[in-house]
Amino acid sequence: MSRIIAKGATSQSIYVEILDSASTSGGRKTGIVYNSAGLTAYYVRNGASATAITLATLAAANSAYSSGGFKEVDATNMPGVYRLDLPDAAVASGADSVVVTVKGASGAAQVSAEIQLSPRVDVDTIKTNPVVNAGTVTFPTTATLASTTNITAGTIATVSGNVTGSVGSVVGAVGSVTGAVGSVTGNVGGNVTGSVGSVAAGGITASSIAADAIGASELAADAVTEIAAAISIPSAATVAAAVWDLDATAHQTQGTFGQAIGDPVADTNSIFKAVVTDATGATVGVDGAAILADTNELQTDWVNGGRLDLILDIIAADTTTDIPALIATLQAFVDTEVAAILAAVDTEVAAIKAKTDSLTFTVANQVDANAIAISGDSVAADRLEAMMDGVIVAQVNDAAASTTVFIADGFTEATNDHFNGRLITFISGALSGQQTAITDYVGATQTITVTALTEAPAENDFFIVH
Predict the structure, then answer these.
(1) Mean pLDDT over residues 113-140, rounded?
(2) How far, in whole angstroms, is CA 319 from its chain's centroid?
(3) Whole-number pLDDT of residue 142
């Protein structure tokens, strides 16, 4: 089925359906783009030669017109359907038809589409020349009839398009009207967008409004506010005053709030009668009196010789227990035990204090230690002391120390070579535990030369000389 486009129309798009050449069941070819290998498009106007269409991409299937634009519509939901934007020259005046061909993409069958080029309606001629014969005048959907001045005789049976000027009257059905309508005789079957000046009495009846015709979605956002402003809804205070100040005498229907509050004359079981009118001993008054009697009885039960007091006496007699004496015995036992525990704690604390009092703290928080024996051998302790007297603890004070030479702190000896031949052992840092021999000593600078270490000591590393 060929498409009809007005001669001389511009920015026209068509849709072509491309089949998969490998399919035996009419499958559609998807995935073709404007620059797919081998893809070409041509058009030929009747009586002319074929003309190539330069294809270009479109951002989306619904993008604005672009001459030669080519885009797959939807590979999932409309497989094989592609949009093609025709060059304006393809549908220009001067030909009655044009054939468009798309071919060449791998796996795609050739597709051709014929387009009939119809004459354009000369709206300007219609505007300036009278239409004097009855019949049908069809306007393009984009045409505008400025007024009905030049429609001077006959009847226009059908108008397809928009009439944007003033129309005196219309007898028959009107699809839609944009603008003012003087009067309508008959029924409006569609929607009226705009205001209606007035509706004759009886114009709107219950039978003319369908069920659920007016719902939340049919009302404008401020429609309820406008209605409320028009009908003057009473305030909450006004409603409350009208309810609470109303005389309930005339509202005594069984089961109502007025009946419950009641009129003591009209209803003998009302709340008003029970609370206000009834004497003590009737309805609420009777109940109150009964509660008071029970309360008085309970108070007498607790006095000496009362029922609760006698029950407690029976319990004491059955257990042959003097409860006050039992409590006193228990309290004396607890006091004795607590006193014994406190005395034992005092003794232990005194013993601990005697031991700690003998400790010496030359430096705060550091206990002085004086070992007089090692494993019970006092001679071993003396020998260890003598040996340690000759041990020097020193510290590296050289950020540029090497594996053989470094400056130290902790020496007071100024004589050169004084420590030559002595051993040093590192007790901190990366060299901790490593031992080497001193080969040279400079007393003025405390510079030590040693047999090469595995790595240079770090500043502030500790070592001993022995």
Answers:
(1) 64
(2) 71
(3) 55
* Lookup result for tokens 């020496």: 411
Give the type of residue at 285: G
pLDDT tens-digit readout, 77-110: 999 999 999 999 999 999 999 999 999 999 999 9
State the DSSP string of 163-208. Answer: E-S--S---S--S---S--S---S---S---S------TTSS-GGG
Residue showing tokens 């420590």: 419
Flag whether the pTM goes above 0.70.
Answer: no
Distance from CA of residue 11 to its chain's centroid?
A: 44
Instruction: Quote the CA–CA distance of 6 and 140 in Å, as a whole number.
Output: 10
Q: How many residues does the chain have?
A: 466
| Model pLDDT for residues 129-168, shown as the tens digit of each residue | 555 544 455 555 555 555 555 454 445 555 655 666 666 6
Question: Distance of CA 379 to CAs 118, 383, 388, 390, 391, Å?
Answer: 131, 6, 14, 18, 19
Kindly state the tokens that stand for 299.
Answer: 């108070």
Query: Which H helix or E strand runs over 405?
Result: strand 405-409
User: 43 Cβ partners below 8 Å, 6+ apart?
Assistant: 50, 51, 53, 86, 87, 90, 98, 99, 100, 101
What are the Cα distances from residue 183, in Å, to 197, 256, 280? 10, 54, 79
- Whose tokens are 């004359």? That residue is 265
For the residues of 323-375, what is the DSSP string, one character each?
Answer: HHHHHHHHHHHHHHHHHHHHHHHHHHHHHHHHHHHT---SBTTB-------BT
